[in-house]
């Protein structure tokens, strides 16, 4: 297994808009790194650059200290699992998995051994003599993974492999991939647009947007300390509530006077020891962020601007129950707010509701640069 | 049940009419081939001859060396068609999936040649072949076809374009060179297109009268179409014998079509790409 | 699978290549080889090969490769033109008199005048004048000047008739030496036109308009050949008479039934759907295979005493102007056109020999074989002429005429009203494309 390093890598088509901009990222040996982001953010392109299916315009790409910018794909020793599986339709599953090995003139017995081993790991031995069109989506996915495994490559690349499966299958396959990762001790670069997948699978997540890397860190860090408003809104379902506000003279306020916080209160070290960014206290327009699960129903009578928290008051538009949770969609003077409650009997739509969050759970972002302030 | 019947009856009627229209010339040919000379020119035209006879077939078989004609025609048709399929596949794949400078310009030029009427090129081609001494050989009839016609290349390119790029990328990552990708992954998938082109190519080569006419003079090299045509000579011929000869010449093609029909149907269903 | 396919293809390609080598590689030879190309029926091929063998025996230093181009109609001419353009013209080749003008004007034919004058095998004076003149060209007029080809034959036309049919209808056979008049002929044809149990049979297939015009004393083109002449009342009447055979008298079938095969209705005669048919001597071998008795008679004339001036066809033997073996080529030409060659070729029954004296012998007359009155052809030959289309080198004007004449044959217009209208166009076609006139 190997280590992949992007060093200021950029890609541009012709004279047009760059697809990947100045990407510098290290994927450690035996790590499962997830590249996540909305469509068009460049994650698939970055993945394909590792494979050699896309060229690199600027910068260098290293696999295990070899600069591979100009190495042809077949010499890079990487295996890829495609979103559409890309199985060879006219070959049996066995032949599909054996193809790469046969190309290398591996002796038949060894080919057989490897394929059987991979098939066992993926529980597809009974499918080996069938053709892809006779298999279900999930089975095909496994064959595709098996095809990658038998090659024992330096790096596994997975391009949204689960997005064509139904929800239930998706979650079971997720677990399967996690298990494989451990069992094979493999370096895996995984691309998805689904942030749940990213959070559950990755040792680390790299969030991308319009060709730029936004943040690369463990799922917990990305979740609790998003580097900017985009990452904050992208990671976490339902997304973090972001409300426009103002920071003036040491006081952060939100439209309608719902929130009035003093920097002094905010500057307190939070539960995980993060601090405000230098210069964060200056006057500017801000975005105030609070995650839905940090909002609780407020039945008390405290006024706004309490040092202990913030309160939003609004009308309940919709209450969605998933069984375990209830999501309240409120319209407030500060904008729409979503709160997550557990279990409660929800208030009825149309009622006036108050939710509150603790000061410790408030995120602040510069409204213009979207950079994290706090 | 009656509902379904009612809506398909008009469809069947239309189909039957069209089928009848299409088969009419063949029926005419068969009818004439069974007539004695005195009945051939009669008006009003009779479908069933009054005195049907096999004499025309007899004459056709004696005047036309069917075995030799068939062999000669095969010697031209098979290499031209199969060679053409191979080269058209290679070229079509290159145009569809490989990237190289000037690719699109070359392809546009290829398409442009399809706009030229063949007749325009008759004289220059003949002069060229005469210069290299290929007149009265089969080479001018085989080589251009075997090197891939524009039409065949175009069709193969369109077909290959429909193969997802990912399959080819997968093969590349698996370690296949472009040639290996072509022979082991792409070409086997091309069966429906190849069968279609092969059948049409064989039919065209089999029926070609003009090409052999221009290039072949020696009687022992004549193709079957030429042989049948030569039952008619400068002093006139017997249409009934011509019809009988044509019917005989058509036979191999009919057999081919009947045989290839199931490949047509099979090929239309998509293979398990996804 | 693809490997096997590849092998199959390679085998077949190499097979076809080697076949080519085996059949056309000439044996190492000290003789000069000349190529000779013509067309014809399979019987002719055999005869020609015999003639060539005899020639090779008489000229052991020459070897002839003879190719007979199969097919009908324009196939031979197109092939010849292609070969000329590509520079691979044969040394000796057939030139039909209709194509002579076009070919000689392009300079493709060798001037034979002096060769013929010196020849000991061929005596130009012994050849039918009408046959010889067709192959002359003086640089701006045809039928005058030097010889550029020698006639291989002369093919006069006569009126073939179904003797069995005439007998069955009680019609006396026409006189073999005195042509019938038009009115006599029409009356006879009426008797021969009848319904036969649902099948309609006709008296005659068609009548060539040029025979009608010439026998009426008119010419198709003016003496200087620069204008078209068929607008005179006599000429118009002659053409209309031909059309009326179908349109008014109904003794001939509608022209559309005659088809494009260029036979002018010969199939109808062969199928016994018409009792008479005007055609050339070359049909005789083919007609000898018919299952009914037939004979020939002179082509009818407008009135008693008028000469029967009719069309005859001919094929010339020419040498390519680019040939490098002209003396050997001419040796073959003079052999084929001389008494020995002509004797053999005439024996097929296809042609009148180009030597007048031979025509009078049994070699041509072939008693015992149909037609019983073969002398009809000899008589016709004297007065016969080449087709109007051969009068000037470029025959486009004739195509123009033919396309307009359709309206007369169909009955949409009369000759009297149409011909004056089209004369300017035809004249223009003649002059524009034949500037040397």
Characterize this entry briefly.
The complex is a heterotrimer of chains A (374), B (274) and C (437). Chain B has 274 residues and is mostly helical.
What does this structure look like?
The complex is a heterotrimer of chains A (about 375), B (about 270) and C (about 425). Chain A is of the alpha+beta class. Chain A is built from nine helices and 20 strands. In chain A, the strands form four sheets. Chain A has a six-stranded mixed β-sheet, sandwiched between helices. Chain A has a five-stranded antiparallel β-sheet with strand order 13-12-11-14-20. In chain A, a hairpin with a 5-residue loop joins β1 and β2 (about 20-25). The two termini of chain A are about 40 Å apart. The model of chain A has no long low-confidence stretch (mean pLDDT about 85). Chain B has two domains: about 1-55, no CATH class; about 55-270, MetI-like fold (Orthogonal Bundle). Helix content of chain B is about 70%, strand content about 0%. Chain B is built from 14 helices and no strands. Chain B has helices at about 1-35, 35-40, 55-65, 65-95, 105-115, 120-130, 140-145, 150-160, 165-175, 180-190, 190-205, 210-215, 225-230, 240-270. The longest helix of chain B has about 30 residues, at about 1-35. Chain B is globular and about 70 Å long. The model of chain B is unreliable at about 270-274 (pLDDT under 50). Chain C has two domains: about 5-155 and about 315-360, Periplasmic binding protein-like II (D-Maltodextrin-Binding Protein, domain 2, 3-Layer(aba) Sandwich); about 155-310 and about 395-435, 3-Layer(aba) Sandwich (D-Maltodextrin-Binding Protein, domain 2), CATH 3.40.190.10. In chain C, α9 (about 210-215) crosses α10 and α18 runs antiparallel to α19. The longest helix of chain C is centred in the N-terminal third of the chain and has 23 residues, at about 1-25. The chains are: A alpha+beta (about 375), B mainly alpha (about 270), C alpha+beta (about 425). Chains in contact: A-B, B-C. At the A-B interface, β6 and α2 of A face α9 and α10 of B.
């Amino acid at each position: 297994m190997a280590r992949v390093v992007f060093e200021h890598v950029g890609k541009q088509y012709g004279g047009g808009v760059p697809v990947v901009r100045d990407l510098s990222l290290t994927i450690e040996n035996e790590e499962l790194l997830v590249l996540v982001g909305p469509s068009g953010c460049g994650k698939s392109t970055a993945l394909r650059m590792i494979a050699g299916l896309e060229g690199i315009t600027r910068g260098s790409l290293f696999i295990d200290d070899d600069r591979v910018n100009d190495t042809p794909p077949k010499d890079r020793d990487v295996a890829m699992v495609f979103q559409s599986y890309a199985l060879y339709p006219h070959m049996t599953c066995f032949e599909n998995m054996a193809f790469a090995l046969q190309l290398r003139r591996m002796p038949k017995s060894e080919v057989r051994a490897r394929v059987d081993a991979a098939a066992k790991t993926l529980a597809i031995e009974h499918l080996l003599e069938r053709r892809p069109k006779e298999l279900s989506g999930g089975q095909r996915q496994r064959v595709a993974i098996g095809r990658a495994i038998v090659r024992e490559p330096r790096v596994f690349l997975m391009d949204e492999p689960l997005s064509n499966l139904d929800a239930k299958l998706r979650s079971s396959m997720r677990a399967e991939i996690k298990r494989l990762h451990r069992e094979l001790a493999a370096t895996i670069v995984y691309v998805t647009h689904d942030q749940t997948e990213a959070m559950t699978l990755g040792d680390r997540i790299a969030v991308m947007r319009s060709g730029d890397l936004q943040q690369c860190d463990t799922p917990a860090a990305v979740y609790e300390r998003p580097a900017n408003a985009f990452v904050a809104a992208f990671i976490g379902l339902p997304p973090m509530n972001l409300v426009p506000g103002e920071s003036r003279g040491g006081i952060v306020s939100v439209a309608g006077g719902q929130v009035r916080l003093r920097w002094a209160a905010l500057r307190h070290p939070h539960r995980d020891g993060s601090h405000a960014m230098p210069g964060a206290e200056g006057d500017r327009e801000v975005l105030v962020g609070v995650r839905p699960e940090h909002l609780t129903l407020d039945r008390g009578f405290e006024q706004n601007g309490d040092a202990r928290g913030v309160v939003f008051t609004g009308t309940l538009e919709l209450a969605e129950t998933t069984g375990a949770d209830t999501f309240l969609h409120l319209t407030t003077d500060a904008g729409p707010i979503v709160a997550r409650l557990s279990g409660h009997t929800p208030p009825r739509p149309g009622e006036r509701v108050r939710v509150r969050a603790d000061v410790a759970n408030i995120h602040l972002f510069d409204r213009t640069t979207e950079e994290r302030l706090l | 049940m009656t509902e379904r019947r009612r809506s398909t009856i008009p469809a069947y009627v239309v189909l039957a009419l069209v089928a009848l229209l299409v088969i009419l010339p063949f029926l005419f040919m068969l009818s004439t081939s069974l007539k004695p000379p005195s009945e051939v020119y009669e008006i009003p035209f009779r479908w069933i001859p009054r005195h049907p006879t096999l004499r025309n077939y007899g004459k056709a078989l004696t005047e036309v060396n069917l075995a030799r004609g068939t062999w000669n025609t095969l010697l031209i048709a098979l290499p031209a068609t199969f060679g053409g399929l191979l080269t058209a596949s290679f070229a079509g794949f290159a145009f569809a999936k490989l990237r190289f400078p000037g690719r699109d310009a070359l392809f546009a030029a290829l398409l442009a040649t399809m706009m030229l009427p063949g007749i325009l090129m008759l004289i220059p081609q003949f002069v060229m072949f005469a210069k290299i001494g290929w007149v009265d050989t089969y080479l001018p009839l085989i080589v251009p076809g075997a090197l891939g016609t524009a039409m065949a290349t175009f069709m193969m390119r369109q077909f290959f374009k429909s193969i997802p790029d990912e399959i080819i990328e997968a093969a590349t990552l698996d370690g296949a060179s472009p040639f290996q990708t072509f022979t082991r992954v792409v070409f086997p998938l091309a069966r429906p297109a190849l069968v279609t082109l092969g059948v049409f190519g064989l039919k065209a080569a089999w029926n070609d009268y003009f090409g052999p006419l221009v290039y072949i003079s020696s009687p022992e090299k004549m193709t079957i179409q030429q042989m049948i045509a030569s039952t008619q000579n400068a002093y006139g011929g017997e249409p009934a014998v011509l019809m009988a000869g044509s019917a005989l010449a058509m036979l191999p093609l009919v057999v081919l079509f009947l045989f290839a029909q199931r490949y047509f149907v099979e090929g239309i269903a998509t293979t398990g790409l996804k | 699978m693809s490997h096997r396919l590849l092998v199959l293809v390679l085998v077949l390609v190499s097979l076809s290549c080697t076949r080519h080598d085996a059949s056309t590689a000439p044996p190492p030879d000290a003789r000069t080889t000349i190529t000779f190309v013509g067309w014809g029926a399979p019987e002719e091929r055999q005869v020609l090969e015999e003639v060539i063998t005899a020639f090779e025996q008489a000229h052991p230093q020459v070897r002839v490769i003879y190719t007979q181009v199969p097919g009908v109609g324009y196939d031979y001419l197109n092939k010849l033109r292609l070969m000329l353009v590509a520079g691979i013209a044969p040394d000796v080749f057939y030139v039909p008199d209709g194509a002579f003008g076009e070919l000689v004007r392009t300079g493709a034919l060798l001037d034979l005048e002096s060769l013929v004058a010196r020849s000991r095998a061929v005596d130009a004076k012994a050849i039918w004048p009408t046959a010889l003149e067709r192959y002359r060209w003086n640089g701006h007029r045809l039928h005058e000047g030097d010889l550029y080809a020698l006639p291989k034959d002369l093919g006069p036309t006569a009126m073939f008739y179904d003797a069995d049919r005439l007998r069955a209808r009680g019609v006396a056979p026409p006189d073999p030496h005195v042509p019938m008049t038009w009115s006599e002929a029409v009356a006879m044809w009426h008797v021969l036109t009848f319904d036969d149990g649902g099948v309609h049979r006709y008296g005659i297939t068609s009548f060539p308009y040029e025979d009608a015009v010439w026998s009426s004393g008119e010419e198709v083109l003016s003496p200087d050949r620069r204008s078209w002449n068929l607008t005179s009342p006599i000429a118009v009447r002659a053409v209309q008479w031909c059309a009326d055979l179908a349109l008014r008298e109904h003794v001939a079938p509608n022209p559309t039934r005659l088809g494009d095969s260029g036979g002018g209705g010969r199939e109808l005669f062969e199928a016994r759907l018409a009792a008479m048919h005007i055609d050339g001597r070359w049909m005789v071998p083919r007609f000898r295979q018919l299952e009914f008795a037939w004979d020939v008679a002179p082509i009818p004339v407008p009135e008693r005493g008028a000469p029967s001036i009719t069309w005859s066809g001919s094929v010339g033997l020419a040498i390519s102007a680019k040939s490098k073996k002209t003396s050997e080529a001419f040796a073959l030409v003079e052999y084929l056109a001389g008494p020995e060659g002509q004797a053999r070729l005439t024996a097929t029954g296809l042609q009148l020999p180009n030597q007048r004296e031979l025509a009078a012998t049994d070699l041509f007359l072939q008693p015992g074989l149909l037609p019983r009155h073969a002398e009809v052809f000899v008589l016709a030959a004297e007065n016969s002429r080449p087709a109007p289309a051969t009068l000037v080198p470029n025959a486009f004007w004739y195509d123009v005429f033919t396309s307009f004449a359709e309206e007369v044959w169909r009955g949409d217009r009369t000759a009297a009203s149409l011909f004056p209208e089209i004369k300017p166009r035809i004249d223009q076609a003649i002059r524009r494309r034949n500037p040397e006139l």
